[in-house]
Specification:
Mg(2+) binds at residue 52. With 211 residues, this protein is α/β, with parallel strands linked by helices. Helices cover 18% and strands 26% of the residues. It has a domain at 4-148: TIM Barrel (Alpha-Beta Barrel), CATH 3.20.20. α1 packs across α2. It binds S-adenosylmethionine (SAM), ligand 2KA, iron/sulfur cluster and magnesium ion.
């Protein structure tokens, strides 16, 4: 049986947060601990606003990978040859359900800086270069330190000031995409104007039609 289930693997620009604009291989793992990914379950899910299809392994570059070497090789091949500043973002779904020390070692051995996008419910393994934590209302909050905290806003029951004293280098509000994105963006702007330690994170890839 394959060790890693990957929905899709692609080269793009990181669209969000402090690394926005940077070339990166996105490795999107299948599966999440806060939603099955099925629309019929969304209303009952712990995380109900997800913008991502992470079910199965049928996306571009998606597959079951037999071991860390095989997946690291696919990541290297997606990056392409002859370019420095190698950067991989592990996301999902929830990447910390699958990302382990063997895969971290194998991608580091190929010269990649390693970032994760995590929902904060699982303690990150050692060795990561960049940790973006995006907590979810009502879910356990375990990963209370990292590189950046990116709060999807607004989430009833999750006030930004709960997080402000934590050990993160950057604090972002990212407007919740969906039917209310315009109102959510206005609310995030108003919050950042009134609380300047928070900055606005836009999903820039969506604005310009990038993946
Ligand atoms: C699809 S998630 C995958 C990683 C991880 N499960 C997490 O939630 O952080 C990637 C990023 O997109 C954010 N996101 C998901 N749905 C969103 C939405 N509707 N609007 C804005 N950001 C969203 C998440 O909060 C997270 O920062
Ligand atoms: N371009 C681009 N940037 C991103 N940053 C975080 C993303 C994610 O889905 O985790 C994402 C994504 O899906 N695409
Ligand atoms: S935790 Fe992340 S991947 Fe899981 S449903 Fe929420 S936004 Fe989507
Ligand atoms: Mg995304």
């Amino acid at each position: 049986m394959a060790k890693y289930a990957v929905k899709e693997l692609f080269l793009t620009l990181q669209g969000e947060g402090a690394q926005a604009g940077r070339a990166a291989v996105f490795c999107r793992f299948s599966g999440c601990n806060l939603w099955s990914g099925r629309e019929t379950d969304r209303a009952d899910a712990a995380c109900g606003f997800c913008d991502t299809d992470f079910v199965g392994m049928d996306g571009a570059g998606g597959a079951g990978f037999i071991d860390a070497e095989a997946l690291a090789e696919a990541i290297e091949s997606a990056w392409g040859s002859g370019k420095a500043d190698r950067f991989v973002v592990f996301t999902g779904g929830e990447p910390l359900l699958q990302l382990d020390e063997a895969l971290i070692a194998a991608t580091h051995a190929r010269g990649f800086e390693i970032a994760v996008e995590t929902n904060g419910t699982i303690s990150p393994p050692p060795g990561l270069d960049w940790i973006c934590v995006s907590p979810k209302a009502g879910a356990p909050f375990i990963a209370t330190r990292g590189s950046e905290l990116k709060l999807v806003f607004p989430q009833p029951g999750l006030a930004p000031d709960e997080f402000r004293g934590l050990a993160f280098a950057h604090f972002w509000l990212q407007p919740m995409d969906g039917p209310d994105v315009a109102a959510n963006t206005a609310a995030a702007i108003a919050y950042c104007l009134a609380h300047p330690s928070w900055r606005l994170s836009l999903q820039t890839h969506k604005l310009i039609g990038l993946r």
